[in-house]
Write a structure and sequence with these properties.
Length: 114
């Protein structure tokens, strides 16, 4: 069975007291979001100032997507020209999604340290 999501997109892990349909307070959801982002930042910590951007994408798309991405390949090689690759992660069920594209543009503008 798929693990449910709660709060702002936290995937419930075994042993956590949350289940599908549970209404979290804003504070609880915020705590889970911050916990998840810390986990993903640690996963990409070797990328220094780019770790937060990678963590944000991993939170939204999953670390598997990030680990196979052109973004990570470019950063590994020292190429920081990732705008096009980052903003390309805006599809839902295979189709371009305008709001996701806008989200990626905002994330890039706020989190990418040039």
């Amino acid at each position: 069975m798929d693990k449910p999501y709660v709060g702002y997109g936290h995937q419930v892990q075994p042993g956590e007291p949350y289940h599908r349909g549970v209404q979290l307070t804003e504070r609880q959801a915020d705590i889970l979001l911050r916990k998840d982002l810390r986990k993903f930042c640690a996963l990409y910590s070797q990328y220094g100032k780019d770790s937060i951007l990678l963590a944000c994408l991993a939170y939204n798309c999953g670390p598997g997507v990030v680990n196979k991405s052109t973004i990570l390949k470019k950063l590994k090689s020292g190429n920081r020209d990732i705008f096009k690759a980052y903003t390309a992660h805006c599809r839902y069920k295979g189709k371009f999604h305008k709001q996701l594209h806008q989200r990626r543009l905002t994330e890039y503008a706020v989190l990418f340290d040039k």
